[in-house]
């Protein structure tokens, strides 16, 4: 039998990993809801994304501010929400008399904010798991090509799924746990 070189070993590892199934990491959403109603609605919305495969939690200590109403300018009645930057704070303001129920407006705006294709656990798993490297809403061979292009490199963000400042076998294992042909 002919010995296998480093490239061959990587390909065999890749084939093995793509067939393996391991649990994905967790995702934490960072938003600062203002008021009890915004907090309740945000918690309910995040709960619909949470699954055993990708636990989604909420961190209310940082991130964009979510507020009901505005102190800066009146809303256009046809607008459900808007994004306003005040200093270093990013605010997502929701129109209390807008065209959508507040829960729907919140999910629609967070869908845009997080880059999801829709507000579902499947879309969240794809986008928030980290393996959708090109941000197209699916984990496919294009994402694998991006990871492999940076394989062995340090101080790169594309392909560094575990955020240890290098793209290596650990990132390949994370990718394989999320890839579904």
TrEMBL record:
Record keyword Transmembrane present: no
Chain segments annotated as transmembrane: none
Keywords: Signal
Keyword Methyltransferase: no
Signal peptide residues on this chain, from the entry's feature table: 1-26
SUPFAM superfamilies: Type I dockerin domain
GO annotation (BP), single: polysaccharide catabolic process
Record InterPro entries: Dockerin_dom_sf, EF_Hand_1_Ca_BS
Origin superkingdom: Bacteria
CDD domains linked: Dockerin_II
Name this polypeptide is given: EF-hand domain-containing protein
Organism this protein belongs to: Deinococcus deserti (strain DSM 17065 / CIP 109153 / LMG 22923 / VCD115)
Lineage, opening ranks: Bacteria, Thermotogati, Deinococcota, Deinococci, Deinococcales
């Amino acid at each position: 039998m002919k010995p296998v070189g480093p490239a061959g070993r990587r390909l065999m590892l890749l084939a093995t990993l793509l067939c393996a199934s391991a649990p994905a990491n967790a995702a934490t959403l960072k938003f600062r809801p203002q008021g009890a109603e915004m907090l309740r609605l945000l918690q309910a919305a995040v709960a619909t994304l949470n699954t055993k495969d990708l636990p989604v939690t909420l961190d209310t200590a940082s991130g964009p501010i979510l507020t009901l109403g505005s102190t800066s300018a009146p809303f256009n009645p046809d607008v459900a929400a808007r994004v306003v930057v005040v200093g270093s704070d990013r605010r997502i303001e929701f129109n209390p008399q807008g065209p959508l129920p507040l829960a729907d407006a919140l999910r629609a705006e967070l869908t845009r904010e997080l880059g999801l294709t829709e507000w579902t656990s499947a879309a969240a798993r794809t986008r928030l798991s980290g393996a959708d490297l090109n941000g197209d809403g699916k984990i496919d061979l294009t994402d694998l090509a991006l990871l492999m292009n940076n394989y062995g490199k340090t101080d790169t963000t594309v392909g560094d799924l575990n955020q240890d400042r290098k793209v290596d076998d650990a990132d390949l294992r994370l990718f394989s746990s999320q890839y579904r042909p």
